[in-house]
Structure formats: C-alpha cells, structure tokens
Amino acid sequence: MESTETRSMPAQRTRSVAFVGLTIAIIAVSAWVVVPIGPIPFTLQMFAITFAIVVLSPKEAIAAITGYLLLGAVGVPVFSGMRGGIGVLAGPTGGFLWGYLFGVAAAVLFLYAVRTKLGVAGGKNAPRLTRAEKAALTRAQRAGAFLRSFGVEIVAGVIFTAIAYACGCAQYMVVGQVDLATAFLVAVAPFVVVDFCKIVAAVICADAVRAAVR
After folding, report:
1. Is the residue at 116 inside a domain?
2. Whole-prediction pTM value?
3. Which residues in the chain land under pLDDT 70?
4. Which of its termini does the chain have fewer beta carbons within 10 Å around, N or C?
5. Assign residue 122 a region: left if phi > 0, alpha if psi is -120 to 50, beta otherwise?
6. Comparing C-alpha atoms, which of 87, 107, 112, 111 is closest to residue 97?
7. Residue 106 in 3-state DSSP?
8. CATH at residue 174
9. In this structure, is residue 1 part of a structural domain?
10. For helices 58-73 and 45-55, what crossing angle results, to 10°?
C-alpha cells in the first residue's frame, strides 16, 4: 500500500517548484528597482536573495539563483535596468551576478550546517515547545533564543554578500582595468552599510513569513 509520505511527494515537488519560480520572479523584480549612484546601480537584489536564503531549502535557493542567471544569460531582461544577455554577465558589473551563485551556495550550506548541528534558526532539529513551555520561558531565555536564530541568519546573509562583493570587485578590476583600491571604492564601499541594512530587513521579513506559514 502506498504510504502517505509517498503520496505527498508530488505535492511537495510542486510546492518546491512554485517557490523557486516565485523567488526567481521576486529577484527579477527587485533588480528592476534601480537607483543609479555611479557605475554600480543600487537595487533590492541583496534583500530578495537574502530572504530566499533564509526561507527556502538549500536546493530551492540554489535552483532559484541558477534559474535567474540562466534566464538572464539567454536574454530575458531580468538583470538591473531590465537588461539581459551574456554581455551583462561579462561586463564590469557581471561579477556580482556570478557572485550571487557562489554566495548563495556558501550561505545555504552554512545555514544548513548550523541548523542541522545546533538546531537553531528554523532547523528541523530546533526544539518545538508547547504553549505552556513557551509561556514558562523567561525574557532572557526568549531573547537568547531569538538572538541565536537571528544572528545565524544575519551571518548567512553576510557570507553571501561578502562573496558577491569579492566576485564583483574582481571582475570590475579586470574589465574596468583599475586597481583593487579603485574597484573597492567604486563597486563595494558605497553599498556596505545599505546592504547590511537590507540583510537585517530580509531576515526580519523572512522570520515573519516563516512564522506565518507554519
């Protein structure tokens, strides 16, 4: 006889595909919100991708960013400024896009490892407390649990962003034929504070969404 778990697998796959497709759309839309402040535009992609890292499973997050890059590579206008094509990936700002893939992979693996080993930040091994147990927690215990989960997710966002910065800075140096200091000042420095704020906002939103759908 077919088990309940076996019967639910197609539904789980359908849900996963839907999540990936929706995430690709969100990343694309976030890339269209552009504030030009120099050669490197300001977009909401860091927010959208960090949100995906926290909410989705590792496979879903990697599939979403891979699908996004593939769509852009074949010419679909999903990159900043509603652009698409290999030329964007090979251009001075293309390193950030490649960095998204490597950064997402590293961040979700880190998050998966921490969630699995420590049972925090939404992991499957995280303790499931009853209402009575939650009510019995002191404020300090509640704050500690929140900060552990929140802090881990912030670190995952920082890992993703740092790798994207490194790849973007490297390609900007090569394509733009500038030195490291110039590349850093143009491609990274103006965005550090704003992008960190986007990471924090993404984690807060992700935790709210995850709590709502439990």
Report:
1. yes
2. 0.82
3. 1-8, 36-39, 118-148, 211-214
4. N
5. left
6. 87
7. helix
8. 1.10.1760.20
9. no
10. 150
